[in-house]
Design brief:
Order of helices and strands: HHEEHHHHEHEH
Shape: globular
Radius of gyration: 19 Å
Strand order of the largest sheet: 1-2
Strand content: 5-15%
Number of helices: 8
Distance between the termini: 41 Å
Length: 181
């Protein structure tokens, strides 16, 4: 990683963009720190937009008094990403904690992407789209509070994909049609 960051610094300096090196380095390392995790068994997981199922199963198993346990039918193997949102909506403390942590990690990653690329909009796809405003409202608030230059520059909205969980499949099908045509 240090070699990569050195290459970026050299390229930025040669193009007269030295001031961007620190911003990029901070964003890049923060993204790695918030999305890459070495597990106890030595495997490495990249944590993206989906709540890692193992994390959810472990949380439910450790808190049998939580609504998480009941909502997954007393079987952590039945845990899915919707259950913690349901538990949080029901006022369950463990569910709320899981969702708050998930949103914080997701918001950190999205903030880094926005700071580096400044997209016009951030679109979330997958099953988590079903959470709508429960997900996008805190993410948008976090971006407005944490993006570089938010007080003087445009901060993109985080929205959910119109096609929700089917967005990826529809996009893939569209690419196939485009390639065949």
């Amino acid at each position: 990683m240090e070699d990569f960051l050195r290459q970026i610094q050299q390229q930025a300096e040669s193009e007269g963009c030295r001031e961007l090196v620190k911003v990029f380095t901070d964003c890049y390392t923060n993204t790695l720190n918030t999305t890459v995790k070495e597990m106890e068994d030595g495997t490495v997981h990249v944590i993206t937009g989906d709540i890692p199922a193992m994390w959810l199963r472990d949380s439910a198993a450790q808190r049998p008094e939580s609504a998480l346990w009941e909502l997954c039918g007393n079987s952590p193997d039945r845990m899915n990403a919707k259950i913690p949102f349901d538990a949080a909506a029901a006022g369950d403390r463990c569910g709320k904690s899981l969702i708050e942590n998930y949103i914080k990690h997701l918001a950190d990653g999205i903030t880094d992407i926005v700071n580096i690329f400044r997209p016009d909009v951030v679109v979330l796809g997958g099953g988590v789209c079903a959470q709508g405003e429960n997900l996008t409202a805190p993410l948008n608030k976090y971006l407005k509070e944490n993006c570089f230059g938010a007080s003087v520059s445009y901060v993109p909205q985080v929205v959910t994909a119109q096609n929700g969980n089917d967005a990826g499949m529809i996009g893939a099908a569209g690419l196939v049609v485009q390639q065949v045509s």
